[in-house]
From TrEMBL:
SUPFAM superfamilies: Galactose-binding domain-like
The organism of origin for this protein: Shewanella xiamenensis
PANTHER family per the UniProt record, alphabetical: COMPLEX I INTERMEDIATE-ASSOCIATED PROTEIN 30, NAD(P)-BINDING ROSSMANN-FOLD SUPERFAMILY PROTEIN
Superkingdom per UniProt: Bacteria
Family the UniProt entry places it in: Belongs to the CIA30 family.
Domain NADH:ubiquinone oxidoreductase intermediate-associated protein: from-to ranges: 4-168
Name of this chain's protein: CIA30 family protein
A family per Pfam: CIA30
Amino acid sequence: MILFDFKELNAAKSWYGVNDTVMGGLSRSKLTISPLGYGMFSGHVSLANGGGFASVRCEFEPKNVSEFTGIYLELDRDRSKHYKVNLKDADTPQSTVYQAPMPDAKHQSFGVNGGSIIHWQRIEIPFTAFHPQCRGKPIERAEIDLSRLTSIGLVIGAQQSGDFALKIKSIGCY
């Protein structure tokens, strides 16, 4: 089941940034669509003013994904950067997310876009890998309600300062 296909020019419209600026930091991020047919989560992580994370998220009407095992992303990433995926259900409080790190790729392929080689990877994250967190700290909370998924987010943090760029073809459930 495809949730987001970034070949569509309007695919980034509903995504918005949530960065460390909410606590005085200076990081920035955005999700845009390349004319070459993929999404680009990019920006700059700054450690100034106690910051250190950047993220984008998309909220949507509740979707029932309980028949699936997890989330997949088709992407191209800089291996020196570490990203995470956030999920929310209809009952998740504003400051809480269910978070999992992006693992190594299950499948890899190469493509040429605009004269540059893109190393597409498919990563799979089982829903069981997502754990509740509030402002970056683990908390006790019931498992995510997969019959009412309402948000997906992408995060770079862990004090990784500097520019970043994550190319995404699609996000879906497997």
